[in-house]
Prior knowledge:
The structure holds 2 protein chains of 2 kinds. By secondary structure, chain A is mostly helical.
Amino acid sequence: MEGIFTANNLWMLVATVLVFIMHLGFATLESGLTQSKNTVNILFKNATIVPLGLLTYCFWGFNIMYPGGDYAGGFFGFAGFGLSMPEGDAGLAGYADGAYTYWTDFIFQAMFAATAATIVSGAVAERVKLHSFLIFTFIYVGFCYPIVGMWKWGGGFLNTMETPFYDFAGSTLVHSVGGWAALVGVMLLGARLGKYVDGKIRPIPGHSMPLATVGVFLLWFGWYGFNGGSVLSADPGLVSLVFVTTSLAAAAGAIGALITALIVVRSNDLSMVLNGILGGLVGITAGADQMSPTDAIIIGLIAGAFVVLAVVFFDRMKLDDPVGAISVHLVCGIWGTLAVGLFGALAGFPQFISQLIGVAVIGVFCFVFALLLFYILKVTLGIRVSAEEEIEGLDIGEHKMRAYPDMVEERTNEKVFS
Amino acid sequence: MKKVEAIIRTSKFEEVVNALAAAGVTFLSFYDVKGHGLEKEYRTYRGTTYDVGYIPRTKLEIIVSDDFAPKTIDTILKIANTGKVGDGKIFVTDLSEVYRIRTGEQGHDAIN
């Protein structure tokens, strides 16, 4: 028993560091898909979101998300500020039936918490005011994320429905939560200058496809911890199944995006394939432990197709999302959550309805929460930098720094002739 | 003495320079330029095809004596030609003075 407890706990800690490296993945992906004049800014955001997420989760987030059995079936609970290790064996082998310790539980969940806010950072990139964004993140990841997480993972009302809502590793609880905030942010901010000229889309290419590729592979790498750790023990059968479904969905997502991009937009677009991989990963996250390999491939293929269609759709709707965060995390998050009712071991009509309820309830809450928060920031501090600052770049405007100070500055995005 | 300036396709650069060297051109500068002309360059990014607004080319600047100019121009015309829109242009101007910095030689002596 001692040996199994150690093995379980060790796997959960390995999964924790895998989730940790996803933050580097987000940072590189987002900087790659944006212009070099905004690189310091996007890295600054990524470097502060993770600390903000960890600290708020330590102070109160963990105790809002997991308030304990007294709040079963509820909407909100709170178990007090700070962390307190249960005494003796109750915090160790006795904590979660010998699956992990109290400390492991906290740190694994804390790594998840920051992810939701990191998703927003890419979507609002290249025009959002730094301090407004940081305040948004602080409040969103400090309150919205753990409140919603409690509804399912903390034993709240979505978990005690007749057919409980199911979200294995957070297609909705993490990715859609971030995705809804990204959508609201993009709506309230408006498009980047120069993205729409005379009603036509004029793309603003990211400055480094190699960085974007590194980011996506780091995210894929980390996802083995994100999904594999969500088994919440080192159960050999389940963890290995989750590794298989996660890999296959990511692979199918890439191929789904490749084929869709070829048919719909007739190009071999690397950024779409990269988004397709992430779409497949987000899609499988809700049911990674419930799917057969075939189910995982179908979910991934459809997610990859959705990503491409969604990127094109949002672009036409004038919702300017430089990195495709809304398409990847919101669209595929919803798809993956609903897919639990359509494919795999839980598939069935009652389950599908429960999934719909979960998606809708969480969607409305997050949308309204983010809308209020962004709106208050908009009418007080302001959320968008000045036009001059945006053209000059947020690196100089917000940080007085360049990411690549010794490289010749080029403004390839400015159309000189038309 | 003539200054021969040629805007050519960057993909033709090595071929042209090698041919010029074979023809006896010993003094040559070049740089990357951006401009716009009859040709348009299109890119595709995230589902949208767009005109980048400029085309990248390489510009050669060659200083030759009067009697050597036709050979230089012919070489560029022949080698840099692909027959498609966007092959570039050649401009020829007269130079009144040329100096070799090391020796102070002037005019024709400064070139050869």
